[in-house]
Write a structure and sequence with these properties.
Number of strands: 3
Mean pLDDT: 81
Largest sheet: 3 strands, antiparallel
Distance between the termini: 36 Å
Strand order of the largest sheet: 1-2-3
Radius of gyration: 16 Å
Number of helices: 2
Shape: elongated
Helix content: 10-25%
Order of helices and strands: EEEHH
Structural class: alpha+beta
């Protein structure tokens, strides 16, 4: 069986900008943008905090750590 080519090849990495994190694949294709704002500005804009955006970006950049087993997913 030939090795399957992946559409978004690993490793995925995270680039931090002033107000966002960007998740990119090994070819430089941008997979996700996660925008954040701090303080009252973030509250009124309904944006994620910097820490929330960073955590989501970190989780998104490591898809090999996610195991889908079916069922109730521990709920």
């Amino acid at each position: 069986m030939a090795q399957e080519t992946r559409r978004f090849p690993p490793p995925w990495s995270i680039i931090e900008s002033d107000e966002s994190f960007t998740v990119i694949d090994a070819t430089g294709f941008k997979l996700a943008y996660l925008y954040f704002a701090e303080g009252s500005r973030g509250f009124y804009m309904a944006r994620l905090t910097r820490d929330e955006a960073r955590r989501i970006a970190n989780g998104s950049a490591r898809p090999h750590l996610i195991a889908f087993t079916g069922g109730d997913h521990g709920v």
